């Protein structure tokens, strides 16, 4: 294979030290499996893309957006639709590419077709369909389509890096900090504590219970998520909703507190390496799929964890008796 040219859709994924950003697999799947991986550790990253069928890699130590734009503009000139995951690097690079290529930028897509792109706005409460009648650059929201089906291993072609100068002032990385578990994008989280309605005892302040769960999760380097019942009740924000109607995740560890395991929730879980279910019902779907099932009252288990970790609960979050998953 030569450099990508005259193909309708191509994903561009920026990697650092071989680490794929959130949304990379989904973006590659939206592009039909064609992807250009650029940055450091590209060969390692390309090997982790299960949905890729055609792969080009461009190894570069510098991933500053202006420098990348100078290196990529001539490569991407013949590609009608360039897709990037809406990761930090993707969001930085996309507008510069759009300007350099002289085309429109469509940000926050959840679905891409050759003639139409569906965008999400107002915290996913508004869907906007935009007709496409020319070359565009698109950023794809992580967690928008779930885990793609794997394809046969792709042939990888290495491209030669050019020494083109950056176009004007460029960003400079001073330090890369690990995200705070309580605010990290769920699609990137390696450990997740999930809350179902069974975690909130009758008469308790649901929002306070969720704050306690978030604090306990953070003490164990985990992020907090929830089922749709919890977010619909206003106890947790919709960006924390896991499922086919929320965020698609794929953590190493998922601990479910009072989660019954409805199909729409499980459908967004991906394939966690380890699943722990805390529920009074030993026959609920979540406990049946778990590696470890703890048949106990979820609020009581959370309160015990908080006490052992030194996490202070507000009075409204204290359990008032047994609660069953719903």
List its salient traits.
about 325 residues; alpha/beta; 9-stranded mixed β-sheet; 5-stranded parallel β-sheet; 14 strands; about 25% helix; about 25% strand
Structure, described:
The protein is an alpha/beta fold. It is 24% helix and 24% strand. It contains nine helices and 14 strands. A hairpin with a 4-residue loop joins β6 and β7 (126-131). The radius of gyration is 22 Å and the shape is elongated.
Give the topology.
Layout: E1 9-15, H1 24-30, E2 34-39, H2 42-47, E3 54-59, H3 65-76, E4 81-85, H4 88-101, E5 104-113, E6 116-121, E7 126-131, E8 136-140, E9 155-158, E10 191-195, H5 206-219, E11 223-226, H6 228-232, E12 253-257, H7 263-266, E13 274-279, H8 285-289, E14 292-295, H9 298-309
Parallel strand pairs: 1-2, 1-4, 2-3, 3-9, 4-8, 5-8, 10-11, 10-12, 12-13, 13-14
Antiparallel strand pairs: 5-6, 6-7
Q: Class of the largest domain in CATH?
A: Alpha Beta
- State the CATH topology of the largest domain: Rossmann fold
CATH superfamily of the largest domain: HUPs
Rg computed from alpha carbons, rounded to a whole number of angstroms: 22 Å
Computed structural class: alpha/beta
- Strand content is 15-25%
Distance between the termini: 53 Å
- Total helices: the number is 9
Rounded mean pLDDT score: 87
CATH architecture of the largest domain: 3-Layer(aba) Sandwich
| Coarse morphology | elongated
User: What is the helical fraction, as a range of percent?
Assistant: 10-25%
Q: What's the total count of β strands?
A: 14
Placed side by side, the strands forming the largest sheet appear as: 7-6-5-8-4-1-2-3-9
Number of domains: 2
**Low-pLDDT stretches:** 319-326
């Amino acid at each position: 294979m030569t450099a990508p040219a005259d193909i309708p859709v191509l994903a561009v994924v920026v990697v650092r030290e071989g680490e794929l950003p959130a949304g990379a697999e989904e973006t590659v799947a939206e592009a039909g499996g064609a992807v250009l991986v650029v940055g450091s550790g590209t060969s390692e990253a390309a090997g982790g893309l299960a949905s890729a069928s055609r792969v080009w890699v461009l190894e570069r130590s510098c991933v500053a957006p202006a420098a990348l734009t100078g290196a990529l503009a001539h490569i991407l000139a013949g590609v009608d639709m360039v897709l990037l995951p809406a990761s930090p690097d993707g969001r930085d690079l996309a507008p510069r590419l759009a300007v350099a290529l002289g085309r429109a930028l469509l940000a926050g897509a959840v679905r891409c077709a050759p003639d139409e792109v569906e965008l999400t706005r107002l915290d996913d409460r508004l869907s906007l369909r935009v007709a496409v009648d020319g070359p565009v650059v698109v950023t794809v929201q992580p967690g928008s389509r779930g885990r793609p089906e794997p394809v046969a291993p792709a042939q990888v072609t290495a491209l030669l890096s050019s020494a083109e100068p950056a176009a004007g002032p460029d960003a400079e990385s001073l330090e890369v900090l690990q995200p705070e578990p309580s605010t990290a994008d769920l699609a990137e989280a390696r450990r997740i504590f999930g809350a179902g309605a069974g975690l909130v005892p009758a008469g308790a302040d649901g929002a306070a219970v969720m704050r306690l769960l978030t604090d306990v999760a953070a003490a164990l380097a985990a992020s907090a998520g929830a089922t749709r019942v919890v977010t619909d009740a206003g106890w947790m924000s919709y960006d924390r909703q896991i499922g086919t109607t929320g965020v698609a995740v794929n953590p190493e560890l998922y601990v479910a507190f009072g989660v019954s395991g409805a199909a729409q929730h499980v459908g967004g879980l991906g394939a966690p390496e380890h699943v722990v279910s805390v529920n009074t019902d030993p026959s609920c779907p979540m406990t049946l799929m778990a590696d470890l099932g703890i048949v106990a009252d979820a609020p009581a288990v959370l309160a015990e964890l908080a006490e052992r970790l030194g996490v202070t609960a507000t009075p409204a979050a204290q359990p008032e008796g047994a609660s069953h998953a719903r």
